[in-house]
């Protein structure tokens, strides 16, 4: 049991270290004692974005078969994805896929505007629009 805990902690620490080096990933939210992490996903301007987080979530799921959880509607979690700590191979695959996905999402762009409905980009991905303060 102690060996499994140590391995999970090492993979969690790797995710924290490596994700902060990926362009388009913002701050870590919350604690680090669970089997998941909560990170901000940033738009092209470097701001936390629900639209960017949803686009990354959908692209990871639909194009790469990687499941994360969009948490941007939760209080204090604007633009956040929940990432579960996986095996070493899953962690390596996730980090590579996230890096590629963020590049794709930022390259293709996504719309901002009033909340409601969704936006479909050129890849056929659907995500909610940002709510802009009036």
TrEMBL record:
Record keywords, A-Z: Aminotransferase, Pyridoxal phosphate, Transferase
Catalysed reactions, semicolon-separated: L-histidinol phosphate + 2-oxoglutarate = 3-(imidazol-4-yl)-2-oxopropyl phosphate + L-glutamate
Keyword Heme: no
Annotated metabolic or biological route of this protein: Amino-acid biosynthesis; L-histidine biosynthesis; L-histidine from 5-phospho-alpha-D-ribose 1-diphosphate: step 7/9
GO molecular function, one term: histidinol-phosphate transaminase activity
Record-listed E.C. numbers: 2.6.1.9
Cofactor: pyridoxal 5'-phosphate
PANTHER family according to UniProt: HISTIDINOL-PHOSPHATE AMINOTRANSFERASE (PTHR42885:SF2), HISTIDINOL-PHOSPHATE AMINOTRANSFERASE-RELATED (PTHR42885)
Protein name: histidinol-phosphate transaminase
Organism for this UniProt entry: Metarhizium brunneum
Originating gene: his3_1
């Amino acid at each position: 049991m102690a060996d499994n805990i140590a391995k999970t902690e090492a993979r969690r620490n790797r995710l924290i270290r490596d994700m902060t080096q990926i362009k388009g990933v913002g701050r870590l939210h919350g604690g680090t004692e669970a089997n998941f992490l909560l990170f901000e996903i940033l738009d092209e301007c470097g701001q936390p974005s629900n639209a960017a987080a949803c686009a990354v979530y959908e692209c990871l799921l639909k194009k790469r078969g990687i499941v994360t959880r969009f948490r941007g509607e939760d209080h204090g979690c604007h633009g956040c994805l929940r990432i579960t700590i996986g095996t070493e191979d899953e962690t390596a695959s996730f980090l590579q896929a996230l890096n590629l996905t963020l590049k794709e999402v930022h390259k293709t762009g996504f719309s901002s505007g009033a909340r409601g409905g969704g936006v479909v980009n050129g890849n056929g991905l659907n995500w909610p629009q940002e709510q802009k303060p009036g």
